Amino acid sequence: MPKVTINGVERDFQPGQMIIQVANAAGVDIPQYCYHDALSIVASCRICLAEVWMPDKATGKLTPYMGGKLLPTCQTACIDGMVVYTDSPKSVANQKAVMEYLLINHPLDCPVCDQAGECHLQDYSYEYGRGVSRFEEAKVKNPKKDLGPHVYLYSDRCIMCTRCVRFTREISGTAELLVAGRGNREEIDVFPGQALANELSGNVVDLCPVGALLDKDFLFAQRVWFLKETPSIDGLTASGDNISIHHNDGKVYRIKPRTNMSVNKHWITDEVRHGWKHVHQQDRLDTPTRKQYGTRVPTDWQRALAEAVALLSAGEASGKRLALIVSPMLSCEDAGTLARAALAIDERVILALGPVPTLGSDKLFPLGVAPDDPKAFRVYAEKAPNARGVRRVLEAFAQAHSLGKVPAYEELLAELRVSDIGSVIATGNYPSAWVTSDLTEALKGKVLVLIDTLPSALSDSADIVLPGTTWVEKSGTFQNAKGILQAFEAAIAPRGNARPEAQIGLDLLATATGNTPTIYNPADTRQQLARLVPALAGLVTEVHMPKAAVAQEPDMVVVPL
């Protein structure tokens, strides 16, 4: 295999790879601003320049490559036997010069900049820059700009890496951004009358290596060094995008993408980025309630569970059947434990998938790209994260217990009107209104136990309401539109007295069977479901777990006082 030596260490490479790609893959630090794996290479920031040597074909002696000038590692392809130095005096002098040029007009506003703490300009200034500034002239001042519904541009901070411009031309294909002006008056701007408002616009904030492009929602909200980061999966659409939930003191502050080239590549949609606000909605259901003399009153979990099982069992005892409606917003573990609980109450239970919301049709970016293009990014019209996973679990249970077909939601509505269903366990967990007049009409006169997160017409009429949790408050597994099973972790504690639906299922099961309740653990639950229903073995063998966090050590010596 061909080899290249970078800073004294030999590295294998694939033909066609650039020096910086080999270095990044090997964990070798080369400063870089304009380079990004998913964007075209422009070599404009010049901080990655390195000294490159090649063995002479005749003598084998190392000689300066390309006349000895510094070469951009992002734009120089590796050659077998090549020797690269990014830490030589010549390379270091260039790094210091580039940093000095970039900071000439940069404002010293790190204390009030949202990017402080995760800014490449800060990091590289410390690691590669000078200790003091030699610039004494007046700095050029540029305006702040409102680019669109989600993004601000602080032009003073921009270093003209053009990542954002290339993103709108190469990834979204919408081309709202451009470079205007020349020299020290060069700026990023939008074309007149065209706001940065495509479905992927928030990704330019992630791409910006400095504090020039900022998320309006996160502006001045929290210092990044206070935030904890939890790996998760998109809980709003069928895409299964890999995300990181950034939170502090039980509150979510922002959602960022995690790179997964087989699912979402480097990106997420604005819908996923900003669609989590219902998690902290003021009117969240957070306490069990029951009906008492026609009025809804709060109660404790033990009484709520006991009354729920008693009401549901009474219907079964009178010859009526139980129906379980499992929302596609729930995890596979939620669906499995609720199915077990329903079967413990009524062996003839009808297992059904709840309504799967859709909005319009799928969209592909860049605009006009072919669906099979490896660069294509799909925005799914299906606004539910686990319709396939829930159906997979319910069908496995139905087949194992000879319960017949798992009806679609529309089929269930028809069945509720004409069949002998006397009681229903319904689950919601949708981020917006989901209860239709058809559903409320079909549920009239039936015992209803509702598990949900937000108030609705059903929460007003249900006999028992049990508060569930959103996906950021629990761990579990989602199966996306491509059929990939992915695990996610709980980021924050449940709201009030709410419980994960899987825990509610285990509690209902324990109450119905008279056993001791068990504490929900996602891995144990998947193992148990696979043992009980062999068709669900894939919940154990097919699950993609998030990558373990890499421990980071500061390069500064901390001396205790």
What does this structure look like?
The chain has 561 residues and is of the alpha+beta class. It folds into three domains: 3-100, Ubiquitin-like (UB roll); 137-280, Alpha-Beta Plaits (2-Layer Sandwich); 289-350 and 385-541, Rossmann fold (3-Layer(aba) Sandwich). Helices cover 26% and strands 20% of the residues. The protein has helices spanning 19-26, 89-103, 120-128, 163-170, 203-207, 270-274, 301-317, 332-345, 387-400, 409-418, 437-442, 457-461, 501-513, 522-532, 538-541, and strands at 3-6, 9-12, 49-55, 62-64, 71-72, 83-85, 144-146, 151-154, 177-180, 187-190, 213-215, 228-233, 242-248, 251-257, 289-292, 295-298, 321-326, 350-353, 363-365, 377-379, 421-427, 447-452, 464-467, 476-479, 485-488. The strands form seven sheets. It has a seven-stranded mixed beta sheet with strand order 16-15-23-22-21-17-18, sandwiched between helices. Strands 1, 2, 3, 4, 5 and 6 form a six-stranded mixed beta sheet that branches. A hairpin with a 4-residue loop joins β7 (144-146) and β8. α2 (89-103) packs across α3 (120-128) and α8 (332-345) packs parallel to α9. The two termini are 52 Å apart.
